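Here is the promised in-class demo. Please do not try to memorize the tokens; focus on the logic of going from shape to residues.
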């Protein structure tokens, strides 16, 4: 990870970053600043490490950009996954924390929510960029903003935050775009697909069954010329289903019944359409009455490719409770906006180190070397057999 750490101009900052990375990688639980400092065993480590994470003005976006460029060159990921992460919090002082209903959990909890972008393949995923969502109480209170370093502007919603990540990685950082995989079931399909079309983003999106499209397949058009729900459109042609294999997040190969059918997107209330999309239905068995639904704007993409790409979401969520990315984001106890982003950035670097170092063991002397140092030379273990979840 020499490229990422080289963005820190001072040698002492690079030293603190390596120490923090070693703590993230070595500790199995409660990866807090105090525990990482205690692991190092030096007297003044805690205070200095806290300053490096929470107050030091180093550029987290610059480090993320270098990390992403390095991983793109080493791994050539076939897709980018954009998804949100719920981070439960016990108190109310962590930056961005809010008590509200969480649809994924079906209840109200105190939590932070972040949006991330992962470089993903069927064998694993590594996060490279983050946005922390800020509820109104964090943006409307000038005194609170000043105290925690929160910027005056915030992301309007999860979709715009995710598109902002894609713009940063592809346009600002100069990394050749990859198809974006996302779960769009929480949005109105017309708005979601219109926004994606306006940005020119290639995508594979999970959608709800009530999303509406214009029928283009002859077998579906026979039943009417107007728009119909996605579930109805795949049901009309389900005789075309074929067995299709895909890799789950745990690395196992599974088989579903799938089909693809061309559909026309409907934008706004005037019925105007753009180029055709591919709608894919996935049934886990012959008796499955509630197919998973995906839509893609990639020209000519077959159903099997949509399905395999769509299931890259499984490499990101639900995260294993003991996975590095999930637990390390949860463990951070800092209260500043820059501190959260510094921590999240080093979590991303640690995830990359773990992925690239897969399979490494004791050195020639039998002593365990520093994981942050042993991975600086890079590698491509991420795409070897076996899932790498972070």
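The designed amino acids, position by position:
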């Amino acid at each position: 990870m020499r490229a990422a750490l080289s963005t820190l101009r001072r040698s002492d900052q690079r030293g603190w970053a390596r120490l923090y990375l070693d703590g993230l990688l070595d500790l199995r639980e409660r990866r807090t600043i105090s525990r990482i400092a205690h692991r190092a065993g030096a007297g003044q480590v805690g205070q200095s490490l806290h300053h490096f994470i929470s107050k030091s003005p180093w550029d987290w976006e610059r480090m993320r950009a270098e990390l992403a460029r390095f991983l793109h060159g080493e791994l050539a990921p076939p897709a980018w996954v954009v998804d949100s992460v719920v981070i439960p919090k016990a108190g109310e002082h962590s930056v961005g924390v809010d008590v509200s209903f969480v649809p994924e959990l079906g209840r109200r909890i105190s939590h932070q929510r972040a949006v991330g972008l992962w470089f993903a393949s069927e064998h694993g995923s590594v996060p490279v960029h983050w946005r922390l969502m800020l509820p109104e109480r964090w943006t409307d209170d000038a005194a609170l903003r000043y105290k925690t370093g929160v910027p005056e502007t915030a992301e309007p919603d999860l979709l715009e935050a995710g598109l902002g990540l894609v713009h940063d990685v592809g346009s600002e950082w100069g990394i050749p775009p990859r198809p974006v995989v996302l779960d769009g079931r929480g949005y109105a399909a017309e708005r979601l697909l219109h926004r994606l079309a306006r940005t020119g983003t290639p995508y594979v999106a999970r959608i709800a069954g009530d999303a509406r499209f214009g029928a283009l397949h002859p077998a579906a058009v026979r039943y009417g010329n107007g728009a119909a729900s996605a579930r109805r459109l795949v049901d009309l042609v389900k005789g075309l289903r074929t067995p299709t294999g895909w890799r789950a997040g745990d690395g196992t190969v599974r088989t579903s019944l799938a089909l693809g059918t061309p559909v026309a997107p409907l934008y706004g209330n005037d019925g105007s359409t753009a180029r055709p999309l591919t709608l894919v239905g996935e049934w886990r068995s012959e008796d499955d009455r509630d197919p998973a639904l995906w839509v893609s704007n990639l020209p000519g993409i077959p159903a099997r490719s949509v399905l395999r790409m769509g299931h890259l979401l499984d490499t990101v969520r639900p995260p294993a409770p003991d996975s590095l990315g999930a637990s390390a984001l949860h463990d951070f106890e800092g209260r500043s906006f820059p501190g959260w982003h510094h921590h999240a950035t080093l979590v991303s670097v640690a995830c990359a180190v773990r992925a690239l170092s897969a399979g490494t063991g004791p050195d020639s002397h039998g002593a365990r070397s520093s994981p942050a140092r042993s991975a600086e030379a890079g590698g491509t273990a991420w795409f070897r057999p076996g899932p790498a979840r972070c």
